[in-house]
UniProtKB/TrEMBL annotation:
UniProt xrefs under Pfam families: KAP (PF05804)
A Gene Ontology term for the protein's cellular component: ciliary transition zone
Protein name: Uncharacterized protein
Taxonomic lineage: Eukaryota, Sar, Alveolata, Dinophyceae, Gonyaulacales
MF term (GO), any: kinesin binding
Listed GO biological process terms: cilium organization; microtubule-based movement
Record InterPro entries: KAP3
Superkingdom of this protein's organism: Eukaryota
Organism (species): Alexandrium andersonii
Amino acid sequence: SMEAKAAGAQRLLRLCTEVGPLEEISEHQTLLGVISRELRENAKRSHELAVAITGIFLCLAHFSQFHGALGRHQAGEATMRVVEFEGKRAKALQKELKLTQSRLGTRGSEVTKEDKLNLQREERRYQAVLERQ
Protein backbone atom coordinates (compact mmCIF):
# COMPACT_ATOMS: atom_id res chain seq x y z
CA SER A 1 0.00 0.00 0.00
CA MET A 2 1.03 3.62 -0.44
CA GLU A 3 1.07 4.15 3.34
CA ALA A 4 3.50 1.26 3.80
CA LYS A 5 5.77 2.61 1.06
CA ALA A 6 5.75 6.07 2.65
CA ALA A 7 6.48 4.62 6.09
CA GLY A 8 9.39 2.60 4.69
CA ALA A 9 10.80 5.63 2.90
CA GLN A 10 10.48 7.68 6.10
CA ARG A 11 12.43 5.03 8.03
CA LEU A 12 15.12 5.04 5.37
CA LEU A 13 15.24 8.84 5.55
CA ARG A 14 15.82 8.62 9.32
CA LEU A 15 18.79 6.34 8.60
CA CYS A 16 20.10 8.81 6.03
CA THR A 17 20.21 11.62 8.57
CA GLU A 18 23.22 9.80 10.04
CA VAL A 19 26.41 9.91 7.96
CA GLY A 20 27.39 6.31 8.77
CA PRO A 21 24.91 4.37 6.61
CA LEU A 22 25.05 6.73 3.61
CA GLU A 23 27.88 4.93 1.81
CA GLU A 24 26.21 1.54 2.17
CA ILE A 25 22.89 2.99 0.98
CA SER A 26 24.57 4.64 -2.02
CA GLU A 27 26.17 1.32 -3.00
CA HIS A 28 22.87 -0.56 -2.85
CA GLN A 29 21.93 -0.26 -6.53
CA THR A 30 18.63 -2.10 -6.18
CA LEU A 31 17.48 0.14 -3.34
CA LEU A 32 18.35 3.35 -5.19
CA GLY A 33 16.66 2.04 -8.32
CA VAL A 34 13.49 1.17 -6.44
CA ILE A 35 13.15 4.46 -4.59
CA SER A 36 13.92 6.45 -7.73
CA ARG A 37 11.23 4.53 -9.62
CA GLU A 38 8.77 4.99 -6.75
CA LEU A 39 9.39 8.72 -6.81
CA ARG A 40 8.80 8.90 -10.56
CA GLU A 41 5.68 6.72 -10.48
CA ASN A 42 4.00 7.61 -7.19
CA ALA A 43 4.98 11.16 -6.24
CA LYS A 44 1.63 12.47 -7.45
CA ARG A 45 -0.26 9.88 -5.41
CA SER A 46 1.52 10.32 -2.09
CA HIS A 47 3.00 13.58 -0.89
CA GLU A 48 4.52 11.83 2.15
CA LEU A 49 6.32 9.32 -0.07
CA ALA A 50 7.63 12.08 -2.34
CA VAL A 51 8.92 14.13 0.60
CA ALA A 52 10.66 11.14 2.17
CA ILE A 53 12.38 10.06 -1.04
CA THR A 54 13.47 13.56 -2.00
CA GLY A 55 14.82 13.88 1.54
CA ILE A 56 16.86 10.70 1.05
CA PHE A 57 18.26 12.06 -2.19
CA LEU A 58 19.04 15.38 -0.50
CA CYS A 59 20.98 13.64 2.27
CA LEU A 60 23.03 11.76 -0.33
CA ALA A 61 23.52 14.87 -2.49
CA HIS A 62 25.33 16.67 0.33
CA PHE A 63 28.36 14.48 -0.37
CA SER A 64 30.03 14.59 -3.79
CA GLN A 65 31.09 10.93 -3.65
CA PHE A 66 27.41 9.93 -3.93
CA HIS A 67 26.61 12.15 -6.93
CA GLY A 68 27.47 9.37 -9.40
CA ALA A 69 25.03 6.95 -7.79
CA LEU A 70 22.30 9.60 -7.79
CA GLY A 71 22.98 10.39 -11.43
CA ARG A 72 22.84 6.74 -12.50
CA HIS A 73 19.36 6.47 -11.01
CA GLN A 74 18.14 9.81 -12.37
CA ALA A 75 17.42 11.05 -8.86
CA GLY A 76 17.89 14.70 -9.81
CA GLU A 77 15.50 14.47 -12.73
CA ALA A 78 12.86 12.69 -10.65
CA THR A 79 13.22 15.26 -7.87
CA MET A 80 12.87 18.18 -10.28
CA ARG A 81 9.69 16.65 -11.69
CA VAL A 82 8.25 16.52 -8.18
CA VAL A 83 9.19 20.15 -7.55
CA GLU A 84 7.63 21.21 -10.87
CA PHE A 85 4.46 19.23 -10.17
CA GLU A 86 4.04 20.71 -6.71
CA GLY A 87 4.57 24.21 -8.10
CA LYS A 88 1.97 23.68 -10.82
CA ARG A 89 -0.47 22.23 -8.31
CA ALA A 90 -0.08 25.23 -6.02
CA LYS A 91 -0.57 27.65 -8.94
CA ALA A 92 -3.69 25.81 -10.12
CA LEU A 93 -5.18 25.86 -6.62
CA GLN A 94 -4.36 29.56 -6.25
CA LYS A 95 -6.01 30.33 -9.59
CA GLU A 96 -9.09 28.32 -8.61
CA LEU A 97 -9.28 30.12 -5.28
CA LYS A 98 -9.00 33.58 -6.86
CA LEU A 99 -11.67 32.67 -9.41
CA THR A 100 -14.04 31.56 -6.66
CA GLN A 101 -13.32 34.71 -4.64
CA SER A 102 -14.01 36.97 -7.61
CA ARG A 103 -17.23 35.10 -8.48
CA LEU A 104 -18.48 35.53 -4.95
CA GLY A 105 -17.40 39.17 -4.94
CA THR A 106 -19.50 39.93 -8.01
CA ARG A 107 -22.55 38.23 -6.52
CA GLY A 108 -22.52 40.53 -3.50
CA SER A 109 -25.52 39.95 -1.24
CA GLU A 110 -26.62 36.89 -3.24
CA VAL A 111 -23.83 34.80 -1.72
CA THR A 112 -25.25 31.87 0.22
CA LYS A 113 -23.93 30.30 3.38
CA GLU A 114 -22.99 27.24 1.32
CA ASP A 115 -20.95 29.43 -1.05
CA LYS A 116 -19.06 30.88 1.91
CA LEU A 117 -18.39 27.40 3.30
CA ASN A 118 -17.09 26.23 -0.08
CA LEU A 119 -14.76 29.23 -0.23
CA GLN A 120 -13.46 28.52 3.27
CA ARG A 121 -12.87 24.88 2.29
CA GLU A 122 -10.90 25.95 -0.80
CA GLU A 123 -8.86 28.41 1.28
CA ARG A 124 -8.00 25.69 3.82
CA ARG A 125 -7.06 23.28 1.02
CA TYR A 126 -4.78 25.88 -0.56
CA GLN A 127 -3.14 26.66 2.80
CA ALA A 128 -2.59 22.95 3.45
CA VAL A 129 -0.82 22.53 0.11
CA LEU A 130 1.39 25.55 0.80
CA GLU A 131 2.29 24.29 4.27
CA ARG A 132 3.21 20.84 2.94
CA GLN A 133 5.48 22.32 0.31
